[in-house]
Amino acid sequence: MQNVFGSGILWGIQNTDANGNLVANPTPIIFGTLQDVSIDTSFDTKMLYGQNQFPVAIGRGKGKISCKASFANIQGDMIGNLLFGQSITNGILSAVYDTTGAVIPDTTYEITPTVPGSGAFSRDLGVINATTGQPLKLVASAPTTGQYTVADGVYTFAAADVGTKVFISYEYTATSTTAKQQTVQNVTMGYAPTFRADLYMPYNGKSLIFSLPNCLSSKFSLSTKLDDFAIPEFDFDAFADASGNVMTWSSTE
Predict the structure, then answer these.
(1) If phi over 0 gives left and psi between -120 and 50 gives alpha, with beta otherwise, what is residue 158?
(2) What does the pLDDT look like over 132-170, one tens digit per residue?
(3) Which residues contact 60 (CB under 8 A, 6 or more apart)?
(4) The pLDDT value given to residue 118
(5) What pLDDT does 117 receive?
(6) Using CA atoms, how far apart are residues 87 and 185, in angstroms rounded to an integer?
(7) Of 16, 36, 118, 226, which has the fewest CB atoms closer than 10 Å, so is most exposed?
(8) Which residues, at least 6 apart from 149, have a Cβ–Cβ distance to it below 8 Å?
């Protein structure tokens, strides 16, 4: 008797990119901290009736293999290659949500936040008065009380606000050899990245495996919670490869 226990181990291996081009030497991507995987195989059935209540023949129509994986490890290559299939670059786009604050000085009335990791300021995300909790208003020039300007990462405030403590939040970019980023382009409908999916479920010296040679993602969901880990969900469907193969499965017994 063979049993299955646990979530198993799931890999995705990219076949084609967003334009339908074959990917040379794709790197297998593991769905880390896997929570669960579902593989639902279903068929349409057509029933032939005569004058009696029950069918005299049943034929199988269209079939469908729908899959869903829930996992906790966020990987740039998985999202970039298997979902969007577009160019990925090394680099960081991140943000600073300021909870420390800085006091507006009495000379230049300017504050230049120190960007982490020798990065470059990218976008203003607002300024909050640390005492009142009220946001300051961004203006083009000559700020007055409760206002500020920003240019090239330098924040300038009104002389009347000298001594006020403010929280400054912003986005920044930085170079990296490990971090991933991708700008998703609005490509033509039809083509989409395809990939191979392999689910391996070992238990008690035995195993069950499903190999789907051609898959296409239909949905990626990411929901956050106040006091829990985010568990993204990745939906995909399997279809036939060039040889007409849809699935290979194997069990120890």
Answers:
(1) beta
(2) 999 999 999 999 999 999 999 999 999 999 999 999 999
(3) 43, 44, 45, 46
(4) 87
(5) 87
(6) 10
(7) 226
(8) 138, 139, 140, 141, 142, 143, 155, 156
Torsion sign over Cα 157, 158, 162, 163: negative
Whole-angstrom Cα distance, residue 251 to residue 134?
A: 62
In whole angstroms, what separates CA 140 from the centre of its chain? 35
**252 residue type, one letter:** T
Q: How much is the mean pLDDT over the chain?
A: 96
Q: Name the H helices within 53-145.
A: 76-77
Q: Reduce the DSSP state of residue 247 to 3 states and report it.
A: coil
pLDDT above 90 coverage of the chain, percent: 96
Token pair recorded at residue 159: 């002389």
| DSSP at 224 | -
pLDDT reading at 213 higher than 90: yes
In this structure, what are the phi and psi dihedrals at residue 117, rounded to the nearest 5 degrees? 60, 30
- For 127-141, b/e burial (b = at least 16 CB within 10 A) is bbbbeeeeebeeeee
Q: What is the pLDDT of residues 32-56, one digit of tens each?
A: 999 999 999 999 999 999 999 999 9
Q: Which domains does the chain have, with CATH numbers?
A: 9-46+60-88+182-251 (2.30.110), 92-174 (no CATH)
